[in-house]
């Protein structure tokens, strides 16, 4: 039997039982990119109409998962999603420092699925110690506000100010997502690299409901593109198109739950399900 050379990619993330975001979105995205996805689970998030709860995995359980992943040959990229306490941030920082491959960090510090928001002491440590280990970070508007002094983000100039502050921490690439939250007809995001600023825009899909998992899917797609050897610009372009299609084919889980869950496989499979 010939050796299967499918590239391997890791997500360090939480589980979302409703499978809009979290490692479920990451694995679905990795599959669509033709990659073999591995997971190190940090937590289990449960979402109901009234509640967003996060149950952390014990630090030693996360550490053992990372130990087993250290045994894997030729990992092609890593994506980091939800980390829930300082011990996890320290552990993951030590793990990332030993790697020489593309690292994408989605700073999940606040979620639209509930009133979950990290404390200031956590955010300070996370900003200084973890984020500079990334090749690119992908905050949404709420996270950009938590990570910088820019407290009102309403314009292209505000996005530029946010990205400048984050780059000053030693993060080469920052991709801040205006997304649904930023007013206007377009879903507008800003990529800032050492070469300058570049806006990405696509028509805003007219959603009658919230959309769950768009940020996880975008960052997983960026990591997948980098794992395949795309340049940062190519990976971002591909990811922006990919998440747009995943939102366009999002799934409604029922009247008792708010929001649609993105479906990374939707574009490929939709004709088969109709
Ligand atoms: N209604 C929408 N139509 C099209 N693209 C969207 C829409 N909402 C968000 N996006 C895009 O989805 C990606 C994820 O952004 P966002 O939803 O803001 O992330 P998060 O889930 O972290 O809050 C970004 O590229 C954003 O522009
Ligand atoms: C485990 C986990 N990570 C991350 C997120 C953030 O998801 P989104 O892509 O909607 O920002 C969620 C949201 O439900 C989650 O449950």
**Total individual domains:** 1
**Attached small molecules:** adenosine-5'-diphosphate, pyridoxal-5'-phosphate
Which second-level CATH architecture applies? Answer: 3-Layer(aba) Sandwich
Cα gyration radius (Å) = 17 Å
Largest sheet: 9 strands, mixed
Mean pLDDT, rounded to whole units? 94
Shape descriptor = globular
CATH superfamily: Ribokinase
Given as residue ranges, the uncertain stretches (5+ residues, pLDDT < 50) are none
- Name the strands of the widest sheet in spatial order: 3-2-1-4-5-6-7-8-9
Encode the helix/strand succession as letters. EHEEHEHEHEHHEEEEHHEEH
CATH topology tier name:
UDP-N-acetylmuramoyl-L-alanine:D-glutamate ligase
CATH class: Alpha Beta
- Structural class given helices, strands, pairing? alpha/beta
Number of helices: 9
Helix % is 25-40%
How far apart are the first and last residues' alpha carbons, in Å? 38 Å
Give a concise summary:
Belongs to the ThiD family. The protein is of the alpha/beta class. It has nine helices and twelve strands.
What can you tell me about this protein's structure?
The chain is of the alpha/beta class. It has one domain: UDP-N-acetylmuramoyl-L-alanine:D-glutamate ligase (3-Layer(aba) Sandwich). Helices cover 38% and strands 23% of the residues. It has 9 helices and 12 strands. The chain has helices at 22-32, 59-70, 86-97, 120-130, 141-147, 156-167, 214-227, 232-248, 266-273; strands at 8-16, 36-47, 52-56, 75-80, 103-105, 136-137, 173-177, 186-193, 196-203, 211-212, 251-252, 260-261. It has a 9-stranded mixed β-sheet, sandwiched between helices. Strands 10-12-11 form a 3-stranded mixed β-sheet, with no helix packed on it. α1 (22-32) packs across α7, α3 runs parallel beside α4 (120-130) and α7 (214-227) runs antiparallel to α8. The longest helix is centred in the last third of the chain and has 17 residues, at 232-248. 43% of the residues are buried. The structure holds adenosine-5'-diphosphate and pyridoxal-5'-phosphate (PLP). Residues 13-16, 20-22, 45, 47, 81-82, 108, 111, 113, 212-216 line the site of pyridoxal-5'-phosphate.
């Amino acid at each position: 039997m010939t050796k299967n050379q499918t590239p391997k990619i890791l997500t360090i993330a939480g589980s979302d039982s409703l499978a809009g975001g979290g490692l479920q979105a990451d694995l679905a995205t990795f599959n669509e990119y033709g990659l073999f996805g591995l997971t190190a689970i940090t937590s289990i998030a449960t979402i109901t109409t009234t509640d967003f709860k996060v149950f952390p995995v014990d630090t030693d359980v996360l550490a053992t998962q990372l130990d087993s992943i250290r045994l894997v040959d030729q990992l092609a990229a890593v994506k980091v999603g939800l980390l829930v306490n300082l011990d996890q941030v320290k552990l993951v920082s030590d793990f990332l420092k030993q790697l020489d491959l593309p690292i994408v960090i989605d700073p999940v510090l606040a979620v639209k699925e509930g009133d979950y928001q990290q404390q200031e002491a956590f955010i300070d440590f996370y900003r200084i110690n973890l984020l500079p280990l990334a090749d690119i970070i992908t905050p949404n508007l709420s996270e950009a506000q938590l990570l910088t002094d820019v407290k009102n983000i309403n314009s292209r100039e505000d996005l530029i100010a946010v990205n400048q502050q984050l780059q000053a921490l030693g993060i080469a690439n920052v991709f801040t997502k205006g997304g649904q939250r930023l007013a206007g007809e377009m879903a507008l995001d800003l990529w800032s690299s050492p070469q300058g600023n570049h806006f990405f825009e696509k028509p805003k899909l007219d959603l009658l409901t919230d959309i769950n998992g768009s940020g996880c899917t975008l960052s997983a797609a960026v990591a997948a593109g980098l794992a395949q050897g795309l340049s940062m610009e190519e990976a971002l372009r591909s990811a922006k198109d990919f998440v747009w299609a995943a939102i366009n084919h999002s799934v409604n889980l029922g009247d008792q739950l708010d929001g649609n869950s993105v479906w990374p496989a939707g574009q490929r499979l939709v004709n088969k399900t109709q």
